[in-house]
Amino acid sequence: MSKGHSPLEQFAIKPIFPLQAGGFDISFTQSALFMILAVVATAALMTLGGKRRAMVPGRWQNVAEMFYEFVYGMAGDALGREARKFFPFIFSVFMIVLMGNLFGMLPYAFTYTSHIVVTGALALMVITVATAVGIAYHGLHFFSLFLPKGLPWMIAPLVILIEVISYLSRPLSLSVRLFANMVAGHTMLKVFAGFSVMMGAVFGMLPLVLNMALIGLELMIAFIQAYVFAILTCLYLKDGVELH
After folding, report:
1. In whole angstroms, what is the distance from residue 121 CA to residue 51 CA?
2. CB 229, CB 97: distance < 8 Å
3. What are phi and psi of 73, to 5 degrees?
4. In the chain, what are the domain boundaries?
5. Beta bridge partners of residue 15, listed in sequence order
6. Spatial CA neighbour of 98 closest among 216, 186, 13, 182
7. How far is C-alpha 21 from the geometric centre of its chain's CA atoms?
């Protein structure tokens, strides 16, 4: 299979406006374009949804309220009274992941959540904020998170090491989960689409039907992965707030 028809070709980052500065490539790419579109789409949705604030909500208000209530309920279940403080951050994380996943389902669009550098940056931001929150709430006592109460001092060094490694691995697991799901799903869609073309009008119907089913599955996964990313963000913030 040639490079132009490779299922992985869809993940290649291509510059729209090539730009070099100080020996570094800082070109504006299609990945950056769709990140901007995701922010614009989210802002437009919430602006249109909150514009009228009617007692009988219209289409846009229904969608905006659905997202708002879903994320606020998730944050409230995890953080309780503290949910209001962190809701804007959690909502932003949820929507930027969801929009990235959904945009990738559109023809000729780009799935920026299929790149580990993007998901890794988001995950690193989440862990950094959660750690900063923990230190802001508890000072140096935050580091007691790595030393469970009642632990015998003989095994404390080993347990602390394990807890620190576990804590530092959170960005890796958080980013890889999202990245891997997006890459695997979109690769499978491209493969089955290729089979539909190669097998002709008659025999290509089976992979075409399978591809349609996979599109429905991918749409569901797009929401699930955004939910998982957001709920883990809530749990990491809860660790910072409550030291659990």
Report:
1. 33
2. yes
3. -65, -40
4. 3-13+20-33+88-242
5. 29
6. 182
7. 30
d(CA 230, CA 93): 6
Here the tokens at position 69 are: 């209530």
- Distance from C-alpha of 138 to C-alpha of 146, rounded to nearest angstrom: 14
What is the mean predicted confidence (pLDDT) over 220-226?
Answer: 93
DSSP state of 52: S
* Confidence (pTM): 0.86
**Helix, strand, coil: what percent of the chain each, to 5?**
75, 5, 20
Residue-wise pLDDT for 91-109, tens only, equals 999 999 999 999 988 888 8
Q: List, for residues 36-74, the tens digit of each pLDDT value.
A: 999 999 999 888 877 766 666 677 888 888 999 999 999
Q: Which residue has the tokens 């007691």?
A: 144
Q: Are 182 and 190 in contact (CB under 8 A)?
A: no
Note the Cα 64 to chain centre separation in Å. 19
Q: Which amino acid is at 61?
A: Q
What pLDDT was estimated at residue 200? 62
Please report the DSSP string for 113-176 in residue order.
GGSHHHHHHHHHHHHHHHHHHHHHHHGGGGGGGGS-TT--TTTHHHHHHHHHHHHHTHHHHHHH
Map residue 109 onto helix, strand or coil: coil
Q: Are 199 and 135 in contact (CB under 8 A)?
A: no
Q: Are 234 and 90 in contact (CB under 8 A)?
A: yes
